Amino acid sequence: MDCLLHYLKTYYPCFGTSLFQQSQLFLIIYRLFFFHSVFDL
Questions:
Q1: Per its UniProt entry, which superkingdom is the organism in (predicted)?
Q2: What secondary structure does DSSP assign to 1-41, as a single string?
Q3: Burial 7-20 (b: 16+ CB within 10 A, else e)
Q4: pTM recorded for the entire structure
């Protein structure tokens, strides 16, 4: 989880300041990690 936080802190601002873009990016990352953790059991 620390790696994810580091990634967000480092690259998150580069995606723009639009609230819509940020929320979409968060949802995509959340889904990737969620499905990865579910199917990688």
A1: Bacteria
A2: -HHHHHHHHHHGGGG-S-HHHHHHHHHHHHHHHHHHHHHT-
A3: eeeeeeeeeeeeee
A4: 0.41
How do residues 3-39 score in pLDDT, each as one tens digit? 666 776 676 655 555 666 777 878 888 888 888 888 7
Residue entry with tokens 């990634």:
7
Distance CA(7)–CA(21), nearest Å, equals: 17
pLDDT of residue 37: 82
| 18 φ/ψ angles, rounded to the nearest 5 degrees | -70, 130
